[in-house]
Amino acid sequence: MALRVAIVGATGNVGRELLNIMDERNFPADKVYALASRRSVGREVSYGDKTLKCQALDDFDFSKVDVVLMSAGGTLSKEWSPKIAAKGAIVIDNSSAWRMDDDVPLIVPEVNGADVMGYKKKGIIANPNCSTAQLVMALKPIHDAVGIKRAVVSTYQSVSGAGKAGMDELWNQTKGIFVNDKPEANEFSRQIAFNAIPMIGSFRDDGFTDEEAKMWNETHKMIDPNIKLTVTCVRVPVFVGHSETVNLELNDALSVEDAREVLRNFDGVQVIDNPEEDQYATAIDCAGEWDTFVSRIRIDPTVEHGLSMWVVADNLRKGAALNAVQIAEELVKRGAVTPETEQA
């Protein structure tokens, strides 16, 4: 059994990572098409030991593929995802365009994999925000065990969340500072090198940003709308890997030892937490990894049944490309896609 897959936005950070992860996980794709804008037609991208030449999105016949992994931004997804779905392909979209649509499932397979079957309504499945994906990986097993009443989350998000341009800006500013060049802020609202910016996205009327609102809205959709959740999102000068502090108020007591055990037993989570041996995970440790890492699990004595922890993950992988590929794998596992044995 083999699938026919198209990658829209194949030349971007996430698009390239999609191809890397499909190869690493031996994804059952018989034919893979790299698609991009007209200006990128003919550019080459790597897929394992193969080289794919980019084709134009506008001219591609989507009736010849089973699954489309869309990573080209919300505006393009709004225009193209319904057209693609109308051709019979299932779209897995990495943008924010469809996440809160009632007829589009929002999926982290370890958390709510069964919900992928909701794709039938519109032919589209949404990937959550990168910071939400790793958060729900840590929240879900604890919520299942004792219930979460309230969560206070602060994120420390890498510049790769803003794409290649964000990474280039950090690199150029850092180099420039050492030769006394004045840092130029284009991708971010302030200098990012040697700084932390407590604002990602756009401010809303309530003082929160849309990035922060995404996290509570998406968590409510995937886990439980009754969890009270407040968030502060911060951009930090890290290339890859998002970090989060998570403070929980639980419905019942959960010891540190039991919390570690619950998290260890959840697929896709690694617990690295041994204060006596100075063991904890950082953003650098998670870069290139598939799993979400949880460290510094401890009792919060300021609230009844309080628990605090530190959560890190590769935002280009679990936060984006890996999760999208896992969604496609979930579709295969549940028989949602039935590709032909022989491909034309």
Commentary on this structure:
The two termini are 14 Å apart. The protein is α/β, with parallel strands linked by helices and 344 residues long. The protein is globular. It folds into two domains: 3-127 and 321-333, Rossmann fold; 131-158 and 196-313, Dihydrodipicolinate Reductase, domain 2, CATH 3.30.360. The longest helix is centred in the middle third of the chain and has 17 residues, at 130-146. Helix 3 (109-112) links the parallel strand 7 and strand 8 (124-126). The strands form four sheets. The chain has a six-stranded parallel sheet with strand order 5-2-1-6-7-8, with helices on both faces. Strands 10-9-11-16-15-12 form a six-stranded mixed sheet. A two-stranded antiparallel ribbon has the order 3-4. Helix 1 (13-24) packs across helix 9 (317-333), helix 4 packs across helix 6 and helix 4 packs across helix 9 (317-333). It contains nine helices and 16 strands.
